[in-house]
Amino acid sequence: ELEEEEEEEEAPAKQGNPFAGFSLPALPVLTLPAPAKKQKKPSAAATDRGTMGNWERTIKEGIRDGDIPTWNIAPESVKGTKVPKIKLKTGDVKVVGRDKGPGIDIAAKVACVSSVHCQFEMEGNKLYVTDLGSTNGTYVDGQEIRKNNRFRVFNGASVRLGAANRNGEPFVTFQADLTGANEMDRNSEYGQVQAIIEGLGGPSTVVNFLFINVAFQVGFYLLLQLQTD
């Protein structure tokens, strides 16, 4: 027993690690900001392209590859209903009416719109609207068009279905915009002349009027010559 006690006394006492369970706090990671990229200054051509209209760009640069002439006829917001946007490509014809049904492509559920109101069609790059015998009429830039008469719509023009009224009843107004092709602007000299011709009934009506007028003037001149002789 004495020997065992001596061995126990000779055995060195185990000392614990004073740093056990102690960890150094994590140091924050420093990140350097990335160098700012130099912004390229837009070229003069790109600036001009962003500020000019599509038809003007087409005149200056020509029709680009992939440009497809398209008429976008966008309706203004109408309280209480949603009128869909109309898109036309060459040869397309769209009929607008109050309710969707046979023969009606675009439904505008507004009281001023007739069951079969008007027709939009694209011929070449030109847009035409025809009033199909509506009750409240079809107007282009405020001018009422004749029933069943095809009327030219120029780029930037507005087409209204239904007359302006004082009772607060809503009517439908579309804004016509041509993309992907060269179309003279409504305010250009060419557009104004064409608008006057269309307002008089179209080129054939104007030609017939001029022919009759010239024939009348010639006949009147010959009659005066006979009287003087």
UniProtKB/TrEMBL annotation:
Coiled coil: none annotated. This is FHA domain-containing protein. It comes from the Eukaryota. It holds the Pfam family FHA. PROSITE patterns: FHA_DOMAIN. InterPro entries: Cell_Proc_Reg/RNA_Proc, FHA_dom, SMAD_FHA_dom_sf. Residues 24-46 have a biased composition (Low complexity). Residues 1-55 are annotated as: Disordered. Residues 1-10 have a biased composition (Acidic residues). Residues 94-145 form the FHA domain. It comes from Mantoniella antarctica.
